[in-house]
Amino acid sequence: MKKINLIILTAFIAFSISSCSTATIEEVVITEIITFDDDVSVIISNNCLSCHSGTFASAGLNLDGYSNVRNATENGNLLTRINSVSNPMPQGGQMPPALIATIEQWAIDGYIEN
Ligand code: HEC
After folding, report:
1. Ligand 1, atom 3: nearest CA belongs to which residue?
2. Which of 12, 23, 46, 54 makes a 20 to 30 Å CA pair with 62?
3. Cα 56 to averaged position of ligand 1 atoms, centre (Å)
4. How many Cα atoms within 13 Å fall on the side-chain side of residue 30?
5. Is 94 among the domain residues?
6. If you take atom 6 of ligand 1, which residue's CA is the nearest one?
7. Domain for residue 13, yes or no?
8. Number of structural domains, the chain?
9. Residue 62: its pLDDT value, please?
């Protein structure tokens, strides 16, 4: 496969509220092509499939397999929800920035399967 290096900077802003407000900006640099089989699949398996698979998938959203995840990312609100601070997916709290950035880069690269 042709190897192209991309450098993408993604800024993530997390606010924490204490006696005063502080903001932390974390940058994630991705220099490799992201594919579903190598990179995205394991993130979805570890963080989403416990709820989003099978007959009783939460919100009727099945994230098992390439085409389901691609559809939720390309045509649905998956990217919005994994980036949401107030209403994140997974429900327990946002994934680490590097994992969110990996899925975003996969979308930018055009949903490469393998
Ligand atoms: C502990 C169970 C659980 C986990 C883990 C989980 N979800 Fe969800 N998800 C839900 C539930 C319940 C809903 C419906 C309620 C809501 O929208 O908040 C939902 C809704 C969603 C929606 C909105 C669907 C719609 O039609 O509006 C998206 C997108 C989503 N989840 C993506 C993900 C992704 C991606 C992951 C992993 C990174 C994930 N979820 C992990 C339980 C979960």
Report:
1. 51
2. 12
3. 12
4. 21
5. yes
6. 90
7. no
8. 1
9. 98
